[in-house]
Amino acid sequence: MFGRRAHAAPTARARRIRAAAQRDRGREPDAPTPWGPPAHGDRTAEAAASAPARKPLRPARVIGIAVVLVLAIVVVGSVLLWQRVSAFNQKVSSAPMASSALFGPLGGTSRVNVLMIGYSGEAKHGGTYLADSINILSIDPVANKTTLIPIPRDLWIQEIREMPRGGKVNEAFADGWARGGWKEAGKAETSVVSQVTGLTIDHWLAIDFAGLSAVVDAVDGVTVENPRAFAYTWWEDACHAKKWSGSFGKGTLHLDGTAALTYTRVRYTSVSAESSDFARSVRQQRVLAALRDKLGAGIGALGPDLALMDALGSHLKTDLSAMDLFLLSGHLHADRRIELKLGPVLAAGRNSAGSYILFPAGATRLGDYALLRRYLARELAKPIPTPRPSASPTAAG
What we know:
The chain is about 40% helix and about 15% strand. By secondary structure, the chain is α+β, with helices and mostly antiparallel strands. It has a single domain, classed as 3-Layer(aba) Sandwich (Aminopeptidase), CATH 3.40.630.190. Strand 14 and strand 15 form a beta hairpin. Helix 7 packs antiparallel against helix 8.
């Protein structure tokens, strides 16, 4: 009688009272309680069971969404790329962005000749706008072959309208710049070289020294094969005293921008064969060919081409559009060189001021370029032989 009283099971009324109290305290009435399961059961499960099942996406719809996304990315990317190329074109070219002067000719039957000019561009180098290197890139679109014709910068010019007082061929670029800036400089040099060689030179491009260095660095350097070792200096007196500033070894050389610029420009070397303009021209072609190999051609070269635009934006001047430069990039690797050598083609002498000059061998007077024109026409008419692959060695036995 005095023992612990057994608890009676809660009645339905008691459960309702406790549920009301829980609601007043902010508790979910249907949540499990010490008194057992919620009075109204699992409403979440009931709602899930009563909701309609989601239909899976059809494959055609998935593909459609993917196509739309890809097109959107392509369109946005194309617009951004066009803006970037257009800004580059405006900085370096006198031609409209949407134009192409080479697309038709490169698919035609006549030679396409482009003059490539390298110049200092900085007063610290001396001769700020003198053309340091002059090369004609002559493209045969039928054979899809390219010939490079280096023009020695000491070639004497006389009786040419653009240089009425005469002078060396590299002075035409500087004279034109003085008259009307870079556009006139390119036109003047192109006109002079065209008249001297007898070749119709369609277009031109010019790059300063800093630009060449920047381009090489933009592609992480270039690799060339150097046939002979030589030491060098930038000063004639130091050369006579054999006080060298540096050297290039024989064999494979990997050059950064500064080294590539030095390799293409030095004139005073420990080896006489490397101390002429002819030797410099050959070294320039090695670097140019290495750049072409590094960049490739066509749409596959898009990435490097964008890096190239950034590097060249302040250093390149041309009358070709950005589209034409893209087309020209596939022809930078020359299949042949036509050298204007001393002896058979050119003779050396002195002008009235005592400066070293070159002129056509056999000419009866200064200003007579007939023999030079005939020589170039004859050499260009010769077909370029296609290299034959050598037979693979077979294993003995």
